[in-house]
Amino acid sequence: MFITGGSRGIGLAIAVRAAKDGANVALLAKTAEPHPKLPGTIYTAAEEIEGAGGKALPIVGDVRDPDSIAQAVEQTAERFGGIDILVNNASAISLTPIEHTEPKRYDLMQSINVRGTFLAIRACIPHLKQSDNGHILSLSPPINLEPQWLKGHAAYTLSKYGMTLLTLAAAEELREAGVAANTLWPRTIIATAAVQNLLGGDEAMAKARTPEIYADAAYEILIKPAREYTGQALIDDEVLAAAGVTDLEPYRAAPGDDELIGDLFVDPAPLR
Q1: Is 258 within the bounds of a domain?
Q2: For residue 182, what are the domain limits?
Q3: Is 156 known to be catalytic?
Q4: pLDDT > 90? residue 136
């Protein structure tokens, strides 16, 4: 597995879940030193992956830089003998309307979310084509053009929908080669540092689900036959329901009966 931005949160949870099956995981991220507001580095993430039963290759790099991506992909393929899975996890977020979005913030989201996804897919394709069950998974939403999702955070919306479009395009371009490409998005907000620091603090965290629901849903996707399961924009609880997992209470970040907070781009559904 080659995963971008997997030093914490959802990306790390996906990597650890794969490691429980003994997966080899390469992490590409910029977090080599501890951040005062964010837990973990790629080195602590590597320790967790190996503690779960996998092998880890932490790589300090920039998902926006084609040379950095290319070198990281080649290093991964050389170390592990190939690449079977690409997870596009690295993402930047700023939930601001157009008028209040600084151009540099706009550029950051497009360069990490869209350009980074493009560069990672492009670099991994030759290796994924050699895999017996090659998968691309991008952590991005279904494209929902209802007006409520178009206002308030246009630059972020554009970047996340861009990730989805690139991934669904890759599904069609790689269909004959037997490489799957899907996207995955959560029904609810997920208890991560982004939610804690940017989206509501402790109150929001108490009404979120844990990263493990995302990780378990990703696992179900990535073990599917690539030739049969591709070109889909998936939601975590629907993936788990199809796998027979309907009790989602263990994924609550905090016990209680409060209604959970739905994530962006997903139309309302019962969230208790």
Answers
A1: no
A2: 2-251
A3: yes
A4: yes
